[in-house]
Amino acid sequence: MQIRSRVYLKVLGNFGILLVVLVAMTYLATRVLNQMEFSYTTAANDLEALNSLERVRNNVVEIPEYLSLYLSTGDKDAKNAFVQGWQNFDSDIATLKKWSSDSLTVESLSQVRNLFFAWVEYVADPKVRIYEGNMSRDSVIAIEREVRAIEADSKYLFHARAQMTLLFQKRLSSQAIMIESATNLGAGLSGFITKVNVLFAVFAIALGFYLTWSITKPLGQLKDGTRNIMESKFIPLAINRTDEFGELADDFNLMSTMLRENYTKIRAYSDLMTALNENETMNGVLSKTLDLLCQQVQAVNGAFYLFDRETNRMTIRGGFALRADRTAISSFAVGEGIPGECARLKKAIEVTELPDLVQFPVDTGLNTIVPRYIYASPVMFQDNLVGVLILGATKPFDEFTKSLVFSAAPQVGVAITNALNFEATQALTRELTSKHAELNQKNSELERAYQVKSDFLSNMSHELRT
């Protein structure tokens, strides 16, 4: 017992060290992974910001080109692209500001927006008015001179493009730094995890052998128990453990007991149905029913009382291990004795610890015994009382035997009703056969009388003619 305790403590100690190492490794790895996640998340956000920056930078170049194409060719699609581009420019800048966390970048984006819309107001719109309006030559020359002067002095597009290029390069370098940082963290983490895993594996293998043995042994017993159940052998498992396997073994044994009872119940029900289907007469049905039920529930004797609606009494019609002299128990009125009370209540009655009953002695061949426990069950057919089944035993009736009787009672009621109907049909057939024979005899007598009368009239007619 002491050696087993030492082994148990050693396993617990190794498992504790393994757990400490695993927790430490998990903590360090989690920190590194969080840093990696932050770096990759930032890089992913930078990638989306880069795409937006690239789109705005392209718009700063392409929108003026659409304007130039429209002014040189009059292409309506170019004009629509120009108008849609400068109208969406403000929303694109707002989207970029959402992706930007530093104030310098936000300020630069605001400058780009102001430069672009200043170009639209002071350069693009005047050019469109010159192209689409009916102006005098002097007005056109004056506006063009003013636009060229503004472009030369302010250089809106040049400064806007320069700002966008700087922002793009800054964001691109930031993304590269974050990806490199995450990659370095990942490389260091791989080496750390490899070293710790070696130590983890050493303890895990030792602990695994013990845990495997402690698991596979009860599993093997459960496997053997399952095979026994498949072969209709309901043998309980002997797993004396206080852990989950012990609880599983208890549940398995409980399941095995339930399956054994269900199997026995189904088999008993099948045997009873087979016996009832093989017998058509009342005596055959009752004899076979009492024989099977008394053997299945281990009753020492039994009796069946058939209910007569006309007399409101029950008369014994079948018995198992009863004496030939049944005068004292041959008939009961409804409400009289255990059979009569069971018929009145229409529910089962159990009587225990009875004194010696002279009404139901059992002759064993060696001595005479008296059942101390009585179980009475009503037999019904379509809510109508057919009779009462009485069973006697020397030990108490358990719930399983009661359930056997409960499940068999309805089928016995059907079989007895069918037997009564069969006997009534047989009696009616015999009566009809007898009456048919009488009718045939009377018909023969009438035919003979008719023939005598016919012969007499024929003779009289002949004599009258002569």
Q: Characteristics of this structure?
A:
elongated, Beta-Lactamase, alpha+beta, 2 domains, 466 residues, six-stranded antiparallel β-sheet, disordered N terminus, 74% helix, 9 helices
What is the level 1 CATH name of the largest domain? Mainly Alpha
Helix content: over 70%
Q: How much is the radius of gyration in Å?
A: 54 Å
Q: SSE order in H/E notation?
A: HHHHHHHEEEHEEEEEH
Q: Rough shape?
A: elongated
CATH architectural arrangement of the largest domain: Up-down Bundle
Integer count of domains: 2
Report on the biggest sheet: 6 strands, antiparallel
Summed over residues and divided by their number, the pLDDT gives a mean of 80
Low-confidence stretches: 1-7
Strand arrangement across the biggest beta sheet? 3-2-1-8-7-4
Number of DSSP helical runs: 9
Strand segment count: 8
Class computed from helices, strands and strand pairing: alpha+beta
Kindly report how far apart the N and C termini lie: 139 Å
CATH fold-type name of the largest domain: Four Helix Bundle (Hemerythrin (Met), subunit A)
Tell me the fraction of residues in β-strands, as a range.
5-15%
Topology:
Elements: H1 2-73, H2 76-99, H3 103-132, H4 137-154, H5 156-230, H6 244-278, H7 282-296, E1 301-308, E2 313-320, E3 331-333, H8 337-345, E4 349-351, E5 362-363, E6 368-369, E7 373-381, E8 384-393, H9 399-465
Antiparallel strand pairs: 1-2, 1-8, 2-3, 4-7, 5-6, 7-8
Architecture overview:
- This protein is of the alpha+beta class.
- It folds into 2 domains: 2-198, Four Helix Bundle (Hemerythrin (Met), subunit A), CATH 1.20.120; 279-428, Beta-Lactamase (2-Layer Sandwich).
- It contains 9 helices and 8 strands.
- The chain has helices spanning 2-73, 76-99, 103-132, 137-154, 156-230, 244-278, 282-296, 337-345, 399-465; strands at residues 301-308, 313-320, 331-333, 349-351, 362-363, 368-369, 373-381, 384-393.
- The chain has a 6-stranded antiparallel beta sheet with strand order 3-2-1-8-7-4.
- Helix 1 runs antiparallel to helix 5 and helix 2 (76-99) packs antiparallel against helix 3.
- It is elongated and about 165 Å long.
- It starts with a helix and ends with a helix.
- Mean pLDDT is 80; it is low at 1-7.
